[in-house]
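Question:
Write out your own:
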Amino acid sequence: MAKPTRWVTDTGPEHSQWYIDRFRRLAAEGADLAGEARLVDALVPPSSRILDAGCGTGRVGAALAARGHTVVGVDADPVLVEAAGATYPGPRWLVGDLAELDLAAAGEPEPFDVAVIAGNVMTFVAPGTEADVLRRVAAHLRPDGLVAVGFGTDRGYQLSAFDDDTAVAGLHLEHRFATWDLRPWRKESDFAVSLLRRPAD
């Protein structure tokens, strides 16, 4: 990795295990952990190829795989990737820096129909790499493919900066919502879900 992510620099050494334990507890309590997956599933045909960029513990990618999609998940944190593989066998889980993403080198040359960047991933990448992350994710999409991105707008990464980075990455904003269940986005919203399109060649 060229630069350490904010996940590394802004959290302590026990944070990854805390995060794993948190989502295992939520799952055991019956919490709804598949909201992002439901939206992404509605955007693509059955049996699509989906990139879970910043997959964390694998909850989103696993829910999409359970719906019949082929999923590849990538995260910079090897502890989270190991937990994803242990909890959700089936999808392929890989360790990688999204700012330098090259899945062909990892044996995954086929393009994706859609990528999902959930769980505030964009606010945890290394500072200054946000446009690179979006550009590298977009490069793995088929022409006319989609990226679904959600993050809190009060976490140090302004939505205006995200929109600038989107343009630099060659993606076009098609829709924006305040939640993954499609509540209307307003200027005062503290969360944004953006659906971005890679132009058709």
Observations:
- The longest strand covers residues 141-152.
- The chain has a mean pLDDT of 94.
- The radius of gyration is 16 Å.
- The beta strands are 49-53, 70-75, 92-95, 112-117, 141-152, 172-177, 191-197.
